[in-house]
Amino acid sequence: MKTHLNTLYVTTQGSYLGRRGEAVVIRCEKKTLGHLPLHNLSGIVCFGRVGFSPALLGACADKGVAVSLLTERGRFLASVRGFTPGNVLLRRAQYRLADDPDAAREVARRIVTAKVANSRTALVRAARDCETDDPRASALRTAAGRLGASIIELRQASEINQVRGLEGEAATHYFGAFDAMLSPVPDREAFRFARRSRRPPLDPINALLSFLYTLLLHDARSACEAAGLDPAVGFLHADRPGKPSLALDLMEELRAFVADRLAFSLINRRQIAASGFKTRENGAVEMDDATRKAVLVAYQQRKRDALTHPVLDESTTVGMIPFLQAALMSRWLRGDIDAYPPFLWKG
Description:
Low-confidence stretches: none
Order of helices and strands: EEEEEEHEEHHHHHHHEEHEEH
Radius of gyration: 20 Å
Shape: globular
Distance between the termini: 26 Å
Number of domains: 2
CATH superfamily of the largest domain: CRISPR-associated endonuclease Cas1, C-terminal domain
Oligomer: single chain
C-alpha cells in the first residue's frame, strides 16, 4: 500500500531546483534554501518563476514524483510525469465504460451523491459548533435539510444531465450557507461569500477556495496516474482537450471534506487575515506570499490527519484518500467489485 509522503511546494520566485545524489536541492540567489530526499516526496508543485535541472526532472520521472507547474497565483500550467504504471487493459476498460451512458450515469450519480452528502456533513458540523442561540445554526440546518432532499432525488436520477442539474441545485443551497460557516471574527465582512467566481476570483474567500482546489486537483491527478488511470477521461465531467476530467471527478467527493473545511478553519482560527489578500487592476484577488505559505503549511498538515477509511475500514491519512479512491476506481473498472464506492465523510 502506498504511504503518505510530503509534497514540496516552491513559492520563492527565482528559485532553481537541482539534483544532488538522491536529493532535490533548492537554491535562490546563490544560496541553498534547503534539500530533501526524493524518496520522501510524492510531488513537487512550483508557483511562478521556478527553474529545474534536466537531471532532477529525469530523477523525478524515474521515481514517480509528479512535478506540477503553476502560475504565481496558482493557475495550473503543465505537469511532468514519468512512465504510467497502469496497463493498457485497464485504460481500455476505462474508455469503454466512460462511453457507456448507463455506466457513466451510475458513476456520476455516486460521485455527486457523495459530494452532496459530504457538503451536508460540513453544514451539520458547523451548526453543531454554533452556540444554542446563534442564528447561523438555523441557516445551516435549513441548507443541510435541502441537501438531504437532493440526495433522495439523486438516487432516482435516470440520466447524467439530470445528475448534473441536481448537482447544480445542491451547490446553490450549499454556497448559500457559506456565510453561516464563518465565525464572528474581526475579518468576517471581508470574507463574506457573494457567489462563486473563479477565473479570476473576485474576493478573498474565492481566492482561498480556488487555491485550495488547485492543490487538491494536483493530488487527485497524481492519484489517477499512480493507479494507472487516464486522468483526462472521466464520467461526470465532459471530455475536453487539456481537462483532467477523471481527476476532477475524484476531487468532487473531497471538496467539502478537505478544501472547504480547511478554508473556514483558517479564517475562523485567524490563521489568515483579510490584509493578506490584494486586489489587482483587473479585479482579481490574490494572496500575498506570507498568506500563501500559511495556507500551504496548513494544507500539508491537513493531509497528515489520520482517519479510518469508511469503505476499506483501515487507518490512513487525509492525504491518502485520493490514492485510495483511485485504487477503488481501478478495482471497479477491472471488475473486482460491482460498483465504485465513493468517499463518504462520517461526521
